[in-house]
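User: Can you help me understand a structure? I only have the sequence.
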Amino acid sequence: MFYTLTEEPVSTTIEYHIIYSHEDAGTPAPLLLSKWGRLTDIEWTYRVVLDAEGVVQEAVYQGPHHVTSRFRGLYGLGGLPMLQAATDNGMVTDIPDSSYRFLLAPVMRWEPHREPRERIMDAFPFTYPMMAWEALRHERPEVPANPATTALADPRCYLYVQTSKMTGRPEQNQGTSIDIRVKLKDDDRWYSSSFGDLRLDGFRAAYDGPYPQFSTTVKLYDGIALNRIERIEAVLLPVGAGAITVKGLKAFFLGPDYLPERPLIVEGEWKLSRRRPSAPLWQALQPV
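Assistant: Let's start by predicting it. Here is the structure, written out as tokens:
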């Protein structure tokens, strides 16, 4: 569990999020990797507003069907809200009927304007093998990995990417998407994080949510490594803001033990627009 903190002159809002190993319903596993850059399920669970004296003014939770509901449940263990998993995809209820009790301490503050949620996974890297074990228990991976299909491959076959899509106006973040494309050495093809802006039954493979910082993956091959990559670029996709800034790049593969390997980190800033929709985020050094 982690949290966000918003401080105002007369109030403080704390929102708690939980990382689940996987989800048993909702987005298909291969598209989780494309849209969210992970197979874990991360959900905001409980949000509380405190006044200047620390007294609760409002408390809500994320109920079934992603409905924000007022918390009317019981408190225990010194005033903590009692919630229970209610769906196959991480929603909760304030009417628990189980005798089990789990107390998760919030391990880290997340700052959405500075980093994607997956930085919490990076800080606690055991979450990556946990993610892989759970997914492979549920799914039969494609062998060998074929980047031309959306089928789930072994999680070690994907390039994990963290970057941003900053519109300058937060209300424009929703619906704005970029594609991350990768070119390998000695290979003329480009490999797309969104499978060419795939749309499937109303679902968009590219991330088009409200957060400016986000994660995605690019499906590649078995036994892939960073030294095989020649170029990484970002492309502004149709719909949404007509001009954005892409700031920063972090890219890595999972090693044999499913733990993140040493990442490629680029501290850059690139402008994308309808007139110039693409920009190289990283280019391998060419031999002299």
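Now, to help you interpret it: The two ends are 49 Å apart (CA to CA). The mean pLDDT is 94. Let me know which part you'd like to focus on.
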